[in-house]
């Protein structure tokens, strides 16, 4: 039980979010409404929170372009990059897309798995907005992972539950021990 508790406490989920910018977006069609895929020109980190704050802004990334109209089933990895010996990546396990003709904008996103060396692979969400005003295309992307709820002591609900269970098992072990009775006689 102690080994199970120790390994569960060592597994740290990823929290935070990261955003990307690029020097441009190349569409496979000149009209955004009929475009079905895109690639980014020199994508890099533009915002970071949580676990991702260790990543310097403007760090170059590899972003895999994909078909969004109709959407592909998954993109593995959607993006990845290294900082020293730490690898950061995100696998898009689902892709959805919708076009708004009023704003001339694609909203593309879905679910996925965030991965960072030394952390537990963590479910997350991702989103890309493509919009066109004349010839310029604006690209914004983020991959966010919801933080675990904490109990006010800086311990996640999952960790505090495991600690409580471990304490209960220890208490049961102590309670079931037969007392050693010795008597003193004078």
Task: Describe the secondary-structure layout.
Elements (H helix, E strand, L loop, with lengths): L1 H9 L5 E6 L2 E4 L10 E4 L2 E7 L11 E2 L11 E9 L2 E7 L3 E5 L4 E12 L5 E12 L2 E10 L11 H20 L10
Helix pairs in contact: 1-2
Question: Overview of this structure, please?
Answer:
- The protein is of the alpha+beta class.
- It has one domain (14-154).
- It has 2 helices and 11 strands.
- The protein has helices spanning 2-10, 157-176; strands spanning 16-21, 24-27, 38-41, 44-50, 62-63, 75-83, 86-92, 96-100, 105-116, 122-133, 136-145.
- Strands 1, 4, 5, 6, 7, 8, 9, 10 and 11 form a 9-stranded antiparallel beta sheet that branches.
- The two termini are 44 Å apart.
- Mean pLDDT is 78; it is low at 1-9 and 150-186.
Produce a short descriptive summary.
The protein is of the alpha+beta class.
Order of helices and strands: HEEEEEEEEEEEH
How would you characterize the largest beta sheet?
9 strands, antiparallel
Please report the distance between the alpha carbons of the first and last residues: 44 Å
* Coarse morphology: globular
How many separate structural domains?
1
Rg over CA atoms: 24 Å
Mean pLDDT equals: 78
Tell me what portion of residues adopts beta-strand conformation: 35-45%
């Amino acid at each position: 039980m102690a080994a199970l508790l120790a390994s569960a406490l060592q597994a740290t989920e990823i929290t935070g979010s990261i955003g990307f910018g690029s020097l441009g977006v190349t569409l496979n069609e000149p009209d955004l409404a009929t475009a079905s895929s895109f690639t980014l020109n020199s994508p890099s980190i533009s915002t970071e929170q949580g676990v991702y704050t260790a990543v310097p802004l403007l760090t170059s990334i590899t972003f895999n372009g994909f078909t969004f109209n109709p959407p592909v089933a998954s993109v593995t990895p959607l993006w990845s990059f290294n900082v020293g010996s730490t690898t950061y990546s995100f696998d898009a396990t689902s892709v959805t897309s919708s076009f708004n003709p009023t704003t001339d904008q694609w909203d593309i996103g879905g679910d996925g798995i965030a991965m960072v060396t030394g952390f537990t692979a963590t479910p997350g969400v991702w989103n890309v907005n493509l919009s066109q005003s004349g010839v310029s295309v604006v690209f914004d992307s983020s991959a966010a992972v919801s933080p675990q709820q904490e109990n006010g002591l800086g311990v996640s609900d999952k960790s505090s539950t495991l600690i409580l269970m471990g304490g209960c098992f220890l208490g049961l072990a102590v309670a079931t021990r037969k007392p050693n009775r010795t008597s003193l006689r004078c």
